[in-house]
User: Fold this.
Amino acid sequence: MALRLLLLLLMLAAALLINQSQGISSSASDCCLKYSQKGIPRGLVKSYSIQELASGCAIPAIVFITKKGKKICASPTEPSVQKLIKNIEKKVKGDIKDRKKGQHLRSRGRSKRQKRQ
Assistant:
């Protein structure tokens, strides 16, 4: 009788450990669990990422990263969120164009080495 009870307890403990380890995954450990209810100021956000259900998270979300490195979770269906995404993408494209123009102009002029001499 005691052996059966011990065996039953061991099986129960093993089942609990298996369930617990399956519930914890590295990709789902940093998931948004709810959306921010506050408006997100455009000037604070530097980038965003997309959280999908396929990554093991409970809800789909847009994760905005602020200039200070904080994460803000937002609903991907909200019109204000869609507008903010477009603004970020436009700004990134503009920054890339500016960098390319700067490199192009620099290559036409004298090199740094020639300027020093």
Residues 49 and 63 are 5 Å apart (CA to CA). The chain has three helices and three strands. The first helix runs from residue 2 to 23.
